[in-house]
Write a structure and sequence with these properties.
Blueprint (H helix, E strand, L loop, with lengths): L2 E5 L5 H11 L15 H17 L3 E8 L5 E11 L5 H7 L11 H17 L5 E9 L8 H16 L3 E6 L3 H6 L3 E9 L8 E9 L5
Parallel strand pairs: 4-5
Antiparallel strand pairs: 1-2, 2-3, 3-4, 5-7, 6-7
Length: about 210
């Protein structure tokens, strides 16, 4: 099997951002990546991930590589693992909050507010496994890389007997359901409010640990 899962190192983070841009080309999640794309904006995102990589003890960055492609990174995940109760201050630090970069971007503001509300409602300060980001290079979909990254976290959550939380697009939802995640909240975004067409659904999902 040419696919292998490994912890990321700091020098991998530009690839994380490259895949993040490629994976979030459309829909509400794409509103969280700077537009128009530029080397300066990409570097700013890399620096944001480097800060989390170095300073957030609960953050675990993972990659799936293809050994047939010289170890190319094809999929990545950022898991957050909190084994103890968190203070209100610790909770607030991790919540997405609109800032200067989101000024004038109502879609980003609305999506970040949705993420904050859902995370407070379903995780709060409780011990939790949280699949914060899961991204796959569009050229390598349906190869099982995403499943490898999900399995890594839920296996640990089962061992710790803790629930797991995530937010899913319609595209990602079937994968998560195969691992036992279920819907706890559904939010429909009217894309016409942001210059688009149609609607988009995002789903907050939980998974209970399997009994030992």
């Amino acid at each position: 099997m040419p696919l292998e899962l490994h912890p990321m190192v700091e020098s991998d983070l530009p690839d994380f951002v490259r895949i993040q841009f490629a994976a979030f080309k459309g829909g509400m999640a794409s509103k969280l990546t700077p537009k128009p794309r530029s080397p300066q904006k990409e570097q700013k995102m890399v620096e944001k991930h480097i800060k989390s990589f170095k300073e957030d003890p609960d953050a675990h960055y993972l990659k799936v590589i293809d050994t047939d492609l010289g170890g190319k990174i094809i999929s990545c995940a950022k898991w957050r693992i909190n084994l103890k109760e968190r203070t209100e201050e610790e909770i607030q630090v991790q919540l997405p909050k609109p800032g200067k970069d989101e000024e004038g971007n109502q879609a980003a503001i609305d999506f970040m507010n949705y993420l904050t509300e859902s995370r407070v409602e379903w995780m709060g300060g409780k011990p939790f496994y949280f699949l914060h980001i899961l991204i796959t290079d569009p050229d390598h979909h349906r190869r099982g890389a995403g499943g490898m990254l999900v399995r890594w976290g839920v296996a640990q959550a089962d061992e710790a007997q803790l629930p797991t939380y995530l937010e899913a697009s319609d595209a990602g939802r079937p994968l998560y359901e195969r691992f036992g995640f279920y819907q706890v909240k559904e939010t429909i975004f009217d894309l016409s409010k942001y210059g688009g067409e149609g609607t988009e659904r995002n789903t907050a999902m939980l998974r209970d640990p399997l009994p030992k």
